Every structure is written in structure tokens, then in C-alpha cells.
Amino acid sequence: MTIFGHQYRIAADAADAKHMEAVAGLLDGRMRRIATSTRRKVAVEIAIQAAIEFADEVLRIREERDRLLTGADEHLSRFARKLEDGASTDLLASGEDPAPAPRF
Questions:
Q1: In this structure, are residues 24 and 2 in contact, taking their beta carbons and an 8 Å threshold?
Q2: Between helices 14-37 and 43-94, what is the axis angle to 10°?
Q3: pLDDT recorded at residue 92
Q4: Is residue 40 one of the residues assigned to a domain?
Q5: Strands (DSSP E) found in the chain
Q6: Stretch 67-82: mean pLDDT
Q7: Is 2 strand, coil or helix?
Q8: What span, in angstroms and rounded, lies between the C-alpha atoms of 8 and 19?
Q9: Does residue 28 contact residue 2 with C-beta atoms inside 8 Å?
């Protein structure tokens, strides 16, 4: 594969080959964008800038994922409490034993 004008051989099985080509294309595109928008012309400096940008994106995505998962957990906990509170109230009022909850 070619990244920023340099050929690289990366071992990958057939299933991963397309993925690795996509990764290389993404990196090549990012490096070319950086090269045209900055005074940096040394490939290593451009690669480091690309790595910093990708790492920043990964961290931001992880933070967003964690925020969304925490929010989903909170919603599920509130929903489960409401279900439990409603079931307890209904059972106390009827005096009946609870039927097993359906699995699905």
C-alpha cells in the first residue's frame, strides 16, 4: 500500500486486506491535507501531526461513548425502578403471587 508517496508492505489476511487499504487511504488523505495546509514538509512531522489528530478524535469519541453509555445506564435504571415500583404496588393491592416475567 502507498501512504504519502511511500510503499509499505503490511501483512494481513484477505479479510483484513480491504480494511488495511481503507486505513492506509485514510492516513494518506489526512497526511496530504496536513501537508497542503501547513508549512511542514518533512514526512515524519506530517505523520506525527496526523497521529495527534487521529488520537484526539479517538479520545473524543471514547468520551462521547462513555457519556452516552452512562446516560443509557441511568435511563435503564430509572425505567427498571419504575417497573419494580409498579409491580410491587400492583401485587400488594391484589394480594396475588406474581406470575413469572416473560423472558422476551
A1: yes
A2: 120
A3: 56
A4: yes
A5: 2-3, 6-7
A6: 93
A7: strand
A8: 15
A9: yes
pTM for this entry: 0.69
In a domain, 78, yes or no: yes
The band of 75, judged by pLDDT with boundaries at 50, 70 and 90, is very high
Overall number of domains in the chain: 1
- Grid coordinates in use for 54? 487521529
Which tens digit of pLDDT belongs to each residue from 4-61? 999 999 888 888 999 999 999 999 999 999 999 998 789 999 999 999 999 999 999 9
In this predicted structure, what is the pLDDT of residue 14?
82
Q: Is 3 helix (H, G, I), strand (E, B) or coil?
A: strand
**Residue 98 belongs to some domain of the structure:** no
The grid coordinates of residue 64 equal 462521547
Q: Determine the Cα–Cα distance for residues 21 and 12; give it in Å rounded to an integer.
A: 10
The parent domain of residue 25 ranges over 2-92
E strand or H helix at 12 = none
Residue 40 identity: R
